[in-house]
Design a protein that fits this description.
Blueprint: H1 16-34, H2 41-59, H3 69-83, H4 88-106
Helix pairs in contact: 1-2, 1-3, 1-4, 2-4, 3-4
Length: 124
């Protein structure tokens, strides 16, 4: 069920896996719309594949890892924004930027030490 505030299916208590699934679905929607421009099909396909790879990397290894509510909300908002796009040319533009937005929202996945991205205004 979509979140009322964002229109995305990412729940407030999301995991990296649920956020990834929502982002991949949003990326697929952008690709489908972009592919309607026949001359851009190869470019759109390449952008979509690169985007899927970036999203999977950003989500990290363990899809069950909880995602902070503010990060889940950010991913949901980015996914909801893609649903508003109706122009195929704009969809192609978003194919190249959407993965970066989601990467930023997800933060770096936890490393072997278990240390995630720094919290607060500055890390020392």
């Amino acid at each position: 069920m979509p979140d009322a505030a964002t229109g995305s299916a990412v729940p407030p208590a999301a995991t990296r896996g649920t956020a990834l699934a929502a982002a991949l679905a949003a990326l697929a929607g952008l690709a489908d719309l972009g592919e309607t421009i026949e001359d851009e099909w190869t470019y759109v396909t390449a952008l979509a594949e690169a985007g899927r790879s970036r999203l999977r990397t950003a989500a990290g290894v363990d899809p069950a890892t909880p995602l902070a509510p503010d990060r889940a909300t950010a991913v949901a908002a980015a996914c909801a924004e893609t649903a508003r796009i109706v122009d195929p040319h704009r969809a192609i533009d978003w194919l190249s930027t959407f993965p970066a937005i989601v990467e930023l929202a997800l933060g770096a996945p936890d490393g072997p030490s278990g240390a995630g991205p720094a919290a607060g205004p500055a890390a020392s």
